[in-house]
Specification:
The protein has 430 residues and is an alpha+beta fold. Helix content is 46%, strand content 19%. Helix 3 crosses helix 6, helix 4 runs parallel beside helix 8 and helix 5 packs across helix 11. It starts with a helix and ends with a strand.
């Protein structure tokens, strides 16, 4: 009898133990989120960009690399569990909010901890990333660009003037709206005049992240009141990030997209890989740029908080220049480890970049895998402008057969690679 009872208890434990198994990601909630994205895709019915949005989606827990997906993959890595599919990413697979080629197809990936409890913010993010999956079909592929100028004081001042004028236009009507749009475009054109390569570089990121963010905004915030709340909260918060170098387009995209839609949705059919959303807005309002003196623009900018913004940016510029000196000392004048990039996979935080003149850009947090292994950095690495070299400080470097460590970084070495001296610096060789 005891044996029968014990067997019965074991069966109950087995059944309920499996059912109550905990995963790093809530499977039911993940399925709910997948269905939210599908609902918005169905509601859109390919109207926005002529393509359905819903496709291969995965959520990833960054710490454990655990995946929850909405479908099976082509290589059989994922296994069905309840209404979803689960598995794990390899150590070398980058984790980010992005679209990526994985298991022979394009997937939307979002970090689980990036998904807000707020349904509007959550669906905005999902539709943003699903747009990235559509870009090849739309012939709107991402283009390399360098917006290092947006870390400099004058560029940031006139970018904020452009944004403030666009925001004022959104909350205005008639002639006042037209006047604010004209002011925004004057400020934009003046910034491009100050920095000759700015226009080409800025428009490339606007066409990538700006249009993606506009898409998320457009599809998730169907109610007009929610759209206005977005400009009062989300836009304001995004202005407060440390760096605009890789993040400014998240603000510009919805601002321009909203105002263009208020005139006509024809602009979306005219959008190409070479478009400039500023020029599209100027065209829709019959605005013609005149060459203007800076004093005139400063006078116009007074109504958009020019003086207070200039004061903030002047103080920031002093700190920026001090930081640049420290970074030059760290990466140019002291021993470093230089790592060549051949077959790189990368993930990073775009909100905290520090351009270092001709030497490249310093990333506060970055993870890079390549032929030599996996580099994890949480305290500054220098990426060259051509993305062919990443550099970390070699001060205090410690080594084992399988790992290198420095202040704020670690590198898991692949088999066969070893450290070699190159003058004061270090490199890897096989």
């Amino acid at each position: 009898m005891k044996k029968i009872i014990s067997t019965f208890i074991f069966i109950i434990f087995l059944v309920y133990g499996v059912q109550s198994q905990e995963y790093p990601i809530d499977l039911e909630k993940a399925h709910q989120y997948f269905m939210e994205a599908k609902k918005l895709s169905d509601l859109d019915d390919s109207k926005l960009w002529g393509q359905p949005f819903y496709g291969s989606m995965m959520f990833v827990d960054p710490e454990t690399r655990f995946i929850v997906a909405n479908k099976a993959d082509l290589k059989g890595v994922l296994k069905p569990e309840k209404d979803v599919f689960i598995g794990y990413l390899k150590p070398e697979d980058p984790i980010a909010n992005t679209s990526m080629k994985w298991a022979e197809e394009t997937w939307m990936m979002i970090m689980w901890n990036a998904l807000s409890e707020d349904v509007l913010k959550r669906t905005n993010l999902m539709m943003h990333e699903l747009y990235h999956c559509l870009q090849p079909k739309l012939e709107m592929l991402p283009q390399a660009c360098n917006n290092a100028h947006l870390d400099q004081m004058n560029a940031r001042i006139w970018l904020k003037m452009e944004w403030n004028a666009l925001e004022h236009a959104i909350f205005s009507e008639g002639k006042e709206r037209s006047r604010s749009i004209a002011d925004a475009l004057r400020f934009r054109n003046f910034r491009h005049k100050l920095y000759p390569q700015a226009r080409e570089n800025e428009k490339k990121l606007e066409l990538n992240e700006g249009i993606a963010e506009y898409t998320g905004f457009k599809l998730a915030l169907l109610d007009m009141n929610d759209q206005y709340k977005y400009f009062k909260s989300t836009t304001v918060n995004r202005k407060n990030v440390k760096s605009y170098v890789r993040s400014f387009a998240y603000v510009s995209g919805p601002l321009y997209g909203f105002l263009l839609d208020e005139k006509s949705d024809v602009w979306r059919s005219e959008l190409t890989q070479n478009s400039d959303i500023g020029e599209l807005l100027a065209k829709s309002y019959n605005f013609h740029q005149d060459s203007e003196d800076e004093k005139i623009l400063i006078s116009l900018a007074q109504q958009y908080a020019y003086d207070s913004i200039k004061a903030i940016e002047t103080e920031r510029e002093v700190k920026r220049l001090e930081k640049v000196k420290l970074l030059e000392e760290k990466f140019i004048y002291k021993p470093v480890l230089r790592l060549k990039l051949v077959n790189m996979k990368i993930q990073f935080d775009p909100r905290s970049l520090q351009p270092l003149d001709k030497h490249g850009t310093v990333y506060q947090n970055i993870r890079v895998s390549d032929e030599w292994g996996i580099l994890d950095v949480d305290n500054e690495a220098l990426m060259s402008s051509d993305w062919k070299m990443i550099t970390v400080s070699a001060v205090g470097l410690t080594t084992t057969d399988k790992q290198l460590k420095g202040k704020g970084w670690s590198l898991q070495l692949n088999k066969g690679w070893k450290l070699k001296s190159d003058g004061l610096d270090k490199v890897l060789e096989k």
